[in-house]
Amino acid sequence: MTASRPKSVFNAHGHDHSACISDALTRAELLCNEQGLRLTAIRRRVLELIWDNHRPTKAYDLLHTIGQERGNAAPPTVYRALDFLLDAGLIHKIESLNAFIGCDAGHGQGHPKFLICRSCERVAEIPSPEVDHALAHEAKRAGFKIDHETIEIGGTCRACASEA
Amino acid sequence: MTASRPKSVFNAHGHDHSACISDALTRAELLCNEQGLRLTAIRRRVLELIWDNHRPTKAYDLLHTIGQERGNAAPPTVYRALDFLLDAGLIHKIESLNAFIGCDAGHGQGHPKFLICRSCERVAEIPSPEVDHALAHEAKRAGFKIDHETIEIGGTCRACASEA
DNA sequence: TTTACAAATGTTATATATTAACGATTCGGC
DNA sequence: GCCGAATCGTTAATATATAACATTTGTAAA
């Protein structure tokens, strides 16, 4: 919980990102302790690699890195760790990119929603009770019971727009 | 533009689906004529196969069908047709399923949004100015310029819920 | 109408993404 | 220490998608 944490990942120039990583790992350990889950070495390392930056990470990038570090790693090594982290709510999958991003709990109580900058490739998780409410309203109108929401907004962040 | 067209694809029992298909193909031809695009035999057939029902269609299902019909077909055959139809706005990709659905223009002026029933696998394209407005508001707050929205809501439709 | 260029398609190969299946190991409770 | 469950190693298969280059076709200018 460092003062240098940026308000938005889109203004992340020179922020103390090591704090993001260590905070995420600390939160993961707390959550696993609370829930009796085992944050094994592989799982922890995968989470750490995903938090290496604020860009979504691809499964095969993880596979290559883990493979180099351990001398061996097959796809299931990575996908099992990803499944665990997804189930634990520690990461999210970005469907439109086939990639994974650390959960920073920025969605609050609602479903996660993402702003994805196509220029810097950073992804911000945003809360929006307004969007949640509007979608709940649409679902109710259609008699549709919502289980899961995939909300991924692609575009250009403020920082990249002002650079252009 | 047939009277038997259902209000929702979730209440599509016994509707005259051939009208859905022919309407979609007619609209495609009009749009291509207007815009100077070429709706070739392969592209037209792929669009027709996607409109075969109101469920998302996978690329390799198309590949197998086209392959049988033509005696030959490699992945690029299908993916190039899909790219064309996507660019023309005639189909949408459902990112969370890696599958494709015909555009029925049900999103009106806004970005497309989908209700996806996990039980009957039907997909409904819904308009929602309310959701569009809420997302535009969030984007403005973040200084984010929206290019594209992926909004895919998974759950259970009314018809499937009442069957259970 | 021939030529020439661009668009579309054919073809081969490969990269990326994901899961199945089964054996070996390790962890935690008894 | 023993046992069952969870985790991991390993091999293989399946699913999704793109790169690269050759060939053909459509179209419009010369």
Automatic annotation (TrEMBL), chains A, B:
Subcellular location: Cytoplasm
Gene name of this polypeptide: fur
Annotated Gene3D superfamilies: 3.30.1490.190, Winged helix-like DNA-binding domain superfamily/Winged helix DNA-binding domain (1.10.10.10)
Location, primary (coarse class): cytoplasm
Organism per entry: Salinisphaera dokdonensis CL-ES53
Subunit comment: Homodimer.
Annotated keywords: Cytoplasm, DNA-binding, Iron, Metal-binding, Repressor, Transcription, Transcription regulation, Zinc
Family of the protein in this entry: Belongs to the Fur family.
Pfam family, one: FUR
Repressor keyword on record: yes
Name the record gives this protein: Ferric uptake regulation protein
